[in-house]
Design a protein that fits this description.
Distance between the termini: 76 Å
Structural class: alpha+beta
Strand order of the largest sheet: 1-2-5-4
Length: 203
Amino acid sequence: SFNNQLAGSLDVYPNPASNIIKVISFLKPDDDYLIRIFNYNGVEMTNKLGNYYNQNGVVSIQVELLPSGLYFGNIKSGSFINSFSFVIRERWLSKFIFLKYFFIILLSLELFFMGIDFLQNFGKLPNSANLQLLYLLYNAFFTLTITLPLSLVFAWIVTLTVFIKNNELVSFYALGISQKQILTPVINISLLITLVLIILQAT
C-alpha cells in the first residue's frame, strides 16, 4: 500500500552523486513534505541544499553545496517519514587535493627556512641585489632536501585529516574502495616527486 511504501527506505539515484540526487518518494504532486539531510556525524545540513521539487513522485534535490561524504536524509509527509542515504564523492585525485596541500606546505617551509637563514646572514651578504638573489635561489634549492620530504609527509597528514573531517574516507570505504586504492596514488606521486629531486640534486 501507499502507507507501507512511504514508511520504508527510499531509492536514490545517482548514488554516488555530485550535483543532484533524485529520490523515489511515492509522493503525490500536491503533497506537502519536508526534507532534512544529515551528515555522518548527525549534523543537519539541510540549510546547504539548493532547490528541490516533486515531479511524479520523484523528488529532485540539489546537493552541489554539500561537501563530499556520506549523508542520511528523510522526507516527512503528514505522519509518515521516508528515510534514504546517499554519498557525495569527489574524485580527490583528479582535483589534486594531495598536490595542492603539498605545494602549499612546501612553499611555506621554503619561505620559513629561507627567511630565517637570510636574516641570520644578512650582515654578511654583499650589497649587490643580484648576488643576494642568487644566494636566495641557491639556498632555496639546498633546503629542498629538507622541506620536500617534510612536505610530502605533512601533505598526506593534512589530506587524510580533510578526508576524515568531511567523511570522505567513510564514503570511500562504503563504496568498496580499499586502503590500497587510496594510498597508491599518494605513494606514486611521492615517489615521482622524490625522483625528480634526486635527479636535480645529481645535476
